[in-house]
Amino acid sequence: MKKIIAANWKNNGSTKFVKDYLNFFLKNKNSNNEIIIFPPDLYINQVNSYKNKKSFSIGGQRINTDGGDTHTSGTTSKMFIDNGCDYILVGHSEIRSLIDQVTFGAAKDLYGSSGLQTIFCVGEDEDTKNSGNTSNVLESQLEDLCNKENYPTDHLLDQKVDNIKQCTNTSLEKAIIAYEPVWAIGSGNTPNIKDISCIHRFIKTYVSENHPFAKEKDIMVLYGGSVNLKNAKDILSAPYVDGVLIGGASLDVKEFTKICNLKI
Ligand code: PGA
User: Fold this and answer.
1) Residue nearest to atom 7 of ligand 1 (CA)
2) How many angstroms separate the alpha carbon of residue 224 from the centre of ligand 1?
3) Which of 44, 75, 241, 242 is 20 to 30 A from 35 via CA?
4) What digits encode the pLDDT tens for the residues 22-48?
């Protein structure tokens, strides 16, 4: 079955890195999986120049919904779309935890992501896990994803859009959630496979019962947090796992390409 394999480069990259990475990747990729690369914003355009039909998709790591067109800095959904992006990460724990981001809200970012398919990140921290409160925390994070108010539907209908893609607000048709336990990100630790399946099932049930637009068959849950070549096959083969979001290990193009080429 087709899986999503996503590379979150975070703040890594250079023009040389992009060139070497994509030359190797396109030569050695042998996979029907949906591959998504999330480069830093400044390299999206360069990554896009390597994208031929169906080879891979591109996503933005963070949307700027701070102040719209009149705000200094940041990247808006229109700019991501204009540069070849189909996806946007929303609610990554590294963004949720930024203390100076007083205006940050996953709900606000969902609203600002029109025209892009969101990958909505949720996950508990270590204290939450140890105190047995994981499902409560996940539910409260998923509430934003499932609240109709957080999508700009009326706004979209009223708006005059020149790019047809902006009319098909794909983030309304599908719900893609990345389950990323905060304690697993960059730590080398992962939950056991049974726990991953169990939590993914919980997320799917909650979202299918509460999401205002997505149908059950269009709800996908990815796992993220210390995925690498050693554990990827087991994680990807586990029940209720529709894909993986990979940080550190995605920077090694050989390792990432091997993960993409896994036959599940
Ligand atoms: P990691 O990062 O694979 O390095 O743990 C995952 C992520 O933060 O998306």
Assistant:
1) 247
2) 6
3) 75
4) 999 999 999 999 999 999 999 999 999
